[in-house]
Amino acid sequence: MTWLLLPLLTLGALLLGRNVVRLATGRGDDTAVDDASARRAVLTAALAHRSLDLPAPRAAGAARDAAPRRRTVGTVALPALTACAVLAVTLSLHALAERADHAPTTLPLPLPLTLTGHTGYVYAVTWSPDGRRLASAANDGTARIWDVARAATVLTLTGHLGGVDTVAWSPSGQRLATGGWDGTVRIWDTTSGSTLRGNLLSDPADFGTRCDGRVDTVAWSPDGRRLAATCDLGHVLIFDGVSGRMLIDLGPQAGTVGALAWSPDGTLVAGGGSDATARVWDAASGRTVLVLTGHTDAVDAVAWSPDGRRLATGSYDHSARIWDATTGRPLTTLSGQGGTVCAVAWSPTGGPLATAGGDHAVHLWDPVTGDSTGRPLTGPSADVTSLAWSPDGRALAAGSDDDTVRVWSPLP
């Protein structure tokens, strides 16, 4: 609230200064200040304005009144209060700037954009909460953090013994979770790139009985307090996001769970399985809430609508489907994509649903009617494996088996 209060302090300081002068001089105006003190006040304000690269204030009083007036307590009070007012303005502007630093930003560069540097298939992409950076995971054994505005890698995260299948940015923006072929879940500092936790699956029993050497998906809860991970043997594990302690094992499913997503309110977890079903679990109890049937091949992608009322799935059967997230009733089938659907992503604004996969393109759909909303986004020369909208919904990133990350601005 500081950024709201400081402008009020500014106004209060100016009004107080005017009243002090009136009381000291016994006059109904604020001209009882000699030209020297006025110049000192203007100089103070000018220096503060220069530090902010703002236009200097005009010395209106000093230029207008060349003859000295009788000195009063206002001679001292007004310059001091003027300086206080300038300081309040300065702090207010800095507070606004700091507040803006934590808000999602619109990318200041022409799109589309291709990010290169990985030397293997890019399996996953995720945005930082402020929309300024991207993270990607690839089978070259690394995860990368990119400065999107500069189209440059700022951190390369190494430590997994084998490919990195999945990556997720914490809601705070300070941590990144990755999962790999080596059966480990690692947590990284997004500023330094240092490892905060080498492996959440530190119990030797976890490696053999739960993950069988591979972590397929990781996903943070919306509040960042929990982290969910899926493993090759069909287990869905939920950890404490701070201590790393495992909270619940949803148990082995009928097949491998290759996709995972939290509901917007953090109470439910949805997963897509190799048994052609999608399931929804209660995140606290582990109880199965819904089993969604209708696909005829493995479900490799899941995504919640921003309001949590619908769930989208993508499948190897070349279709995407939209379901009522309360009843499990199928609402819409999105057909016409020329290949497997490996990724689905719902715009955070509630707008189009993006799908991608085996036809090397990204498709945009009206989630209500199921109609295509425009020409496919093209560029990748191989399967598109993952999708992620920027927090402001203006940019869409995709990872591909051609070793690249691409970013488009699909909306007008």
Molecular structure report:
The chain contains 5 helices and 27 strands. With 412 residues, the protein is α+β, with helices and mostly antiparallel strands. The chain has 2 domains: 2-101, no CATH class; 113-408, Methylamine Dehydrogenase, Chain H (7 Propeller), CATH 2.130.10.10. A 4-stranded antiparallel beta sheet has the order 1-27-26-25, with no helix packed on it. A 4-stranded antiparallel beta sheet has the order 2-3-4-5, with no helix packed on it. The protein is globular and about 45 Å long. The model is unreliable at 1-103 and 204-209 (pLDDT under 50).
Strand order of the largest sheet: 1-27-26-25
Q: What is the distance, rounded to the nearest whole angstrom, between the alpha carbons of the first and last residues?
A: 34 Å
How many structural domains?
2
The CATH architecture assignment of the largest domain turns out to be: 7 Propeller
Total strand segments: 27
Topology diagram in text:
Blueprint: H1 2-25, H2 35-51, H3 60-64, H4 74-101, E1 113-115, E2 122-127, E3 133-138, E4 142-147, E5 152-158, E6 164-169, E7 175-180, E8 185-189, E9 195-197, H5 204-211, E10 215-220, E11 226-231, E12 236-240, E13 246-249, E14 257-262, E15 268-273, E16 278-282, E17 288-292, E18 299-304, E19 310-315, E20 320-324, E21 330-334, E22 341-346, E23 353-357, E24 362-365, E25 384-389, E26 396-400, E27 405-408
Antiparallel strand pairs: 1-27, 2-3, 3-4, 4-5, 6-7, 7-8, 8-9, 10-11, 11-12, 12-13, 14-15, 15-16, 16-17, 18-19, 19-20, 20-21, 22-23, 23-24, 25-26, 26-27
